[in-house]
Amino acid sequence: MSSYSLILREFDVFFSFTWRDWSFTLIPATTFTVGAMRGLPISTVITNYLFMIFCMSTFLYFVNLSNLITGIVEDKIDRKDRLIPSGKVTLRGAKIRWMIVLSSYLATSIYEPSMLSETIAGLFITAFLCLTSGGNHWFGKNNIAMTVVTWAILGVSWKSMAPHSPESQMWVYGMAVRTGIMMYIADIRDIKGDTVSGRKTMSIAFGDWETRLLISFVFSPLSLFILNLSHILEFAPWTITISHIIIAYRVLQMKGSRYDHKTYMYFTYFHCGILALLATE
Q1: pTM of the predicted model, to two decimals?
Q2: Does the chain have fewer CB atoms within 10 Å around its N or its C terminus?
Q3: How far apart are CA 71 and CA 160, in angstroms?
């Protein structure tokens, strides 16, 4: 196989493996970073933007490879099109890629030391999710891990372009806490696989319908309160509120896993929309 063909294959493997998560990682990062571009020379913007894409890509690939290697049993049930169950790569090949990507991911904090805290946080949270029982628990997975991951993603997105401002730090904290509160939406899609893999999601612990009620009538209003507290809601109060009402309504419908997956995707789209509003301020 020629070098050109090998590169194309690796891009295909990366894309086919990570595209599902772009709406929560690459797209929000590339959107939020626009707010940090103001006043910078175009050459600096291009260089820093490409660096940010590299940071986000290595982090995303590292997380997915870690999850792939440690979650083969669940993938054979719920995600048969993923790399190892589909036969696209071997377990050995996934481990080799994991070592290369981990090295590249850690190297980003050497190039830009201000992102060291986010890099270390991403490393430890990935280990927490993949290797500990706490990462399989509804509180650990959502309120801790997803909050920290969102903080790291948005922090790198901004810092790769320019130093944080007081406003951008406040927005990052607000969006991170809000994401941790609302990420239970992702768990209602995958109850069968979560049960087999031994996860203790809220849907399994308290019941599907009870979790949906909590998401719609407790977590959704609470996330609006967090956005208001972090001065995000004020940028588009009606639009943001209506987006939460739409999500809450869909969560209550119980029309199957495919419908629930679309609800989760709508949540990620609204997440990106809020970041776009912040980037223009």
Answers
A1: 0.90
A2: N
A3: 31
